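User: Sequence in, structure out. Go.
Assistant: Echoing your sequence, followed by the structure tokens.
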Amino acid sequence: MADDKEKTGFQQPHNVILEDRRILTISGVQDIDSYDEQSVVAFTELGELTIKGENLHINKIDVQTGELNIEGEIWELCYSDLQQKKQGIFSRLFR
């Protein structure tokens, strides 16, 4: 399946839907790195996504469709690119 993705250039669509800062639905999720009641770290088609809040609960994760549903008090959504972080650290070390 990964070969098909490389050949066609098809990526799973990535969407984020936040309802009343209580229900978060994300598509295009590839993996969950870590989670607890204060944060969820997910790898998406567009980079690492960190969700912060309080009383966070994962209601649904579907590996086939890449859909993730989180409920709780959501304070922050933050994207980061791991490759950029690594470059930033090394560039500071070798200045």
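User: And one key feature?
Assistant: The beta strands are 15-19, 23-27, 29-35, 39-44, 47-62, 67-80.
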